[in-house]
Amino acid sequence: MSLSAALPAADPSPTPAESETPRVPSLQDAQESATSAAGWVEENWSTWLAIGLRVLLIVVIAAVLRVLVRRAITKLVDRMSRTGQAMEGGGLGGLLVNAERRRQRSMAIGSVLRSVASFLIVGTAALMVLGTFQINLAPLLASAGVAGVAIGFGARNLVTDFLSGVFMILEDQYGVGDTVDAGVATGEVIEVGLRVTKLRGENGEIWYVRNGEVKRIGNLSQGWATANVDVTVRSDEDLDRVKAVLSDVAERTSKEEPWNELLWSPVEVLGLDSVLLDSMVVRVSAKTMPGKSLTVERELRWRIKRAVDGRVPAAGPEHHQVAAGPPRGGARGTSPGRRPSPLSGAGS
């Protein structure tokens, strides 16, 4: 066969323009794509609907449960406040219960309980929603654990302050109006927080004490206080006469207002506290209302001094000025050898 005969039989090669022309989808191709998508949606719509309903149910239940729990906690706090107001109405409870103290304590406890309840409910709901979408929670929980440990080490002082404040409030170690000795500062509590406690010192200064720094605390306003007065007498003084004078002062003080309310036990002459070469110390003691021991001590010293001088009766809180009477053994101001008073009060 010749070359000329074979060439016409070969197919002509396509030109570059003809090979790069895009294929236009036909109506039939579009119909097939739509049918395939509809079939895929039809196969999976039930799964999507189930997931959506489950997520909606979890969110609704979590929201309703959170509202109910917070409302219950609020009612509990209100009941605690009303109980405190009722106790203030009468008797000894009115002396021991402070309205502001109970209010702040109730609010702090309620705030902690509401925060903890919200965190638990919302966190559990979020984990359930992620599980509904079939997300692997193990890496997420591991990462959260590592982040929590890192934050705990970085903010350990803050965490310590917060936890200490929570336990102080729950155990009612102190409250507003109490006089406390916190070691680092001493004063009257004016505000109790979860992280910081505010104290007002004797000179009016305000101390901000972090709860985590309090290692020990002494509450001077709980229960009762003790008023102790040490009376110094000469070594040659008649102890029976001293005891008689002190007992008379104690009896009169216990019967007069307002000292009969401040004194929670009879004033007792305990006896000799110490004996020196030229003097002896007799101790007088009594239980008082919390925070009133210094007031009672000052009054007892005043009455004891006036009773020993003999210028006015041992009672008489209305006489709060010392009369300048004539000294023993001569006219006023004429005897340089005046005998000193055998008793002098010295507070312990």
Could you describe the 3D structure shown?
The protein is an alpha+beta fold and 348 residues long. Helix content is 52%, strand content 16%. The protein contains 10 helices and 9 strands. The protein is rod-shaped. The model is unreliable at 1-7, 88-97, 311-342 and 344-348 (pLDDT under 50).
Structural class, please?
A: alpha+beta
Bin the strand percentage.
15-25%
Shape: rod-shaped
Average per-residue pLDDT, rounded, comes to 75
Strand order of the largest sheet: 4-3-2-1-5
**Could you give the order of the helices and strands?**
HHHHHHHEEEEEEHHEEHE
User: Uncertain segments of ≥5 residues (pLDDT<50)?
Assistant: 1-7, 88-97, 311-342, 344-348
Distance between the termini: 141 Å
Helical percentage: 40-55%
The main pleated sheet reads as: 5 strands, antiparallel
Lay out the secondary structure:
Elements: H1 3-9, H2 16-19, H3 27-88, H4 93-96, H5 99-132, H6 137-154, H7 156-170, E1 179-181, E2 186-192, E3 196-200, E4 206-210, E5 218-219, E6 225-234, H8 239-255, H9 259-262, E7 268-275, E8 279-288, H10 293-309, E9 343-347
List keywords for this structure.
348 residues; 5-stranded antiparallel sheet; rod-shaped
How is this structure best summarized?
This protein has ten helices and nine strands.
